[in-house]
Amino acid sequence: MNFSTIFAIVVLMIGLGYLLGRGRSVQLAGQIGGVRHLNSLPFYYGALIALWCAIPSLLIFMGWIVFDDIIIRSMVVAELPAQYQQMSAAEQSLLVNSLENIAAGVHFGEPEPALQEAANRLLSLQTASRWSLAGVVISTALAALVIGWTRMSPQYKARVHVETVFKGLLLTSSLIAIFTTVGIVLSVLFEALRFFRAVPFTEFVFGLEWSPQTAIRADQVGSSGAFGAVPLFVGTLVISAIAMLVAVPTGLMSAIYLSEYASRRVRAWVKPALEVLAGIPTVVYGFFAALTVAPFVRNLGEAMGLDVSSESALAAGVVMGVMIIPFVSSLSDDVISAVPQSMRDGSLALGATRSETVKQVIVPAALPGIVGGVLLAVSRAIGETMIVVMAAGLAANLTANPLETVTTVTVQIVTLLVGDQEFNSPKTLAAFALGLMLFVITLCLNFLALHVVKKYREQYE
Amino acid sequence: MSMNEQYASAVGGANELKEGRSMEAYTDLAGTDHAEVSKDRTREKTVGKPLLESAKMSTRNVKVFYDDKQVLFDVNLDIGANEVIAMIGPSGCGKSTFLRCLNRMNDTIDSCRVEGDLTLDGQNIYDPKLDVVPLRARVGMVFQKPNPFPKSIYDNVAYGPRIHGLVDHRAELDEVVETSLKRAGLWEEVKDRLHQPGTGLSGGQQQRLCIARTIAVSPEVILMDEPCSALDPIATARIEELIAELSENFTIAIVTHSMQQAARVSSRTAYFHLGKLIEVNDTEVVFTNPQHKLTEAYITGRFG
Questions:
Q1: Under a CB-based contact definition with an 8 Å cutoff, are residues A415 and A164 in contact?
Q2: Label partner for A163 (CA 20 to 30 A): which of A6, A49, B102, B137?
Q3: Cβ contact A165:A44 at 8 Å
Q4: Is a pLDDT exceeding 90 seen at residue A430?
């Protein structure tokens, strides 16, 4: 009997529980003069019994699956001859894997008798575990069915109990998102702490040189490794600044056009067209930046007698800006449309033109919301990876010149982690430290942006 | 109860009171039942004295449409210089729409179309060549809900003079702001906090700020669209006093739902009903001796 069979049986029993509960409630109702005399609708009685079947048996089922392997492994290892007991944890885990292979009949030549015996033991333990799981789970579900059946009465408040369970379900779902975030932060944090054991925090934050090559062998030439993150953050900043220079004026002005000037028909066409930009995969923007915009910028620069590298911050920044335009414009459009019509009327009635109204009344009134939107866009730009990987280059130059190659935090994280890596060298761990810094920065920006947007909402609602 | 039913019951009541007149005369006036009657209705002449010998603003055959729906039917009305004219009538009768025609605020509504002749000092205000900006500076407007800009009190009042370039230097602007606030009766309350946001004032103060903002550009006509409907009785009384003071210098057209207010502040009253201008006369006449049955029914509170 394998896990999926057990699971199928449990599901069947849950369905049975629903039907039984429902049927029983209808039967009870029949004795007292109809469904209207029940405390709750028959559906709730059925659902309650189904839930009683489902919750404990599924919890046991999941717990069993999680712990079953660990317990069986340790039991098998404990029975092995002494020579195997002294192995390291990693070797033991390999050994258990090979035991599983032997048990499944996959092996070369005749395995050692001790191992063969252990493999048999593993197999019998697993079989026993499944049968007992089936027994426990099915009897739990049965017990729940019986208890539910006996406790059911027309006065029983099934609806209230189902509501409680439903509330619990909603709470669990929201907690999943929160715990995932916490989990991500912790995993990055611990790896980053390992990195800071090898490289001092101050050196990482204030160091001006980034060259994450460490010697793997003692006699290797060069590459002592320098982990100053400043060039990366400067590069990120330069590219984001260029992106915002492109995205904010364009996005804001298109939002103003759409919400203040465009007729309904134009708006119905232009707004979805603008939002198509948001649907383009970033990888495609990456091609566009690397193959079209970067050579264009380079040729243009050369025509003007400037020295432009072929992977310039300018090209990556401009394309990233284009990517962010719909983001800025749709957020600004929302806040501008939220400015009450009475503001526009008041200004127009004083003899102001439309553009005077926009400049002096609408934009100032919508400013907090616009700032919030722009901050969200900045955190988007900082975290953007694909475009910069393809178009910004790898050289960690500490420069503010947009015509030179720069690299960003995200690009470095990608290059540090691509390919075969050992997870105990500072080179690899540096990626986590960079990730942590990036996370903290975007978190602060988002927090600030949401705060600003919230403040704005309070003003008008 | 729909407008028609309301009207029918009101008319019914009037009929019982004044017997001897045929019921048909009233249904003709209501005229919403069939097309022929409504045709008659559009030809119906306004009773009373809608026209003046010398008018500040005059309107002839004004029709307004929202898309294909006609909401104003051939309105002929003169507004004399320095008079206060009140426009009353049940909701949806077109009085606010008419008011908004007078400074072309209806231009901001895409679906709205205005026909007819509207003149200010003899000049056609719907002339395609006319620039709407100076028109709105000459015909200012105060709205139903106080709508100060999210700026300081000072900047709210200074907004108009600034965009129209009415002042050359700061001292002059200060003076305009002070005079406007004084004329709006707000100066004493705000002189120590001119640079605080205008949105922080109370509702009545905000409305007086909006009036100050409007008079800061020295308009000739001020349109008021139910300026007190969002205010409490004390603030309302304050604004009504102000209207009386302002009428010395400005021509004021006020839309109101309160008949008492119309009686208190205006010298002439125009009664609108379902898009038609029914009766215009001196306020006293309208409220003591209305000549039209609908006017009488409305002011005696039978409907509306």
A1: no
A2: A6
A3: no
A4: no
Question: Where does residue B78 fall: left (phi above 0), alpha (psi -120 to 50 degrees), or beta otherwise?
Answer: beta
- Does residue B148 register a pLDDT over 60? yes
Domain positions in chain A are 3-156, 226-460
For residue A379, the distance in angstroms to the closest alpha carbon of chain B comes to 29
Distance between CA atoms of B265 and A26, rounded to whole angstroms? 72
User: What percentage of chain A reaches a pLDDT higher than 90?
Assistant: 24
Choose among B271, B282, B258: nearest CA to B98: B271
Residue among B211, B250, B215 at smallest CA distance from B227: B211
Q: Is the confidence at residue A122, as pLDDT, over 90?
A: no
pLDDT range class, residue A149, cuts 50, 70, 90: confident
Select the CATH number that applies to the domain covering A226-460 from these four: 1.10.10.60, 1.10.3720.10, 1.10.3430.10, 3.30.930.10: 1.10.3720.10
Asked whether the beta carbons of residue B214 and residue A263 sit closer than 8 angstroms, the reply is: no
B279 and B271 Cβ atoms separated by less than 8 Å:
yes
Taking the Cβ of residue A262 and every Cβ of chain B, the question of whether any pair is shorter than 8 Å is answered with no
- Interface contact flag, B141 A349, Cβ < 8 Å: yes
pLDDT at residue A6 is higher than 80: yes
Residues B203-231 have a mean pLDDT of 92
Q: Is the pLDDT at A213 greater than 80, yes or no?
A: no
- What DSSP assignment string belongs to B40-56? HHHHPPPEE----SS-S
The DSSP symbol for A36 reads G
The two tokens of residue A253 are 């002005």
- Alpha carbon of B293: minimum distance to chain A alpha carbons (Å): 36
User: Is the minimum CB–CB distance between A355 and chain B shorter than 8 Å?
Assistant: no
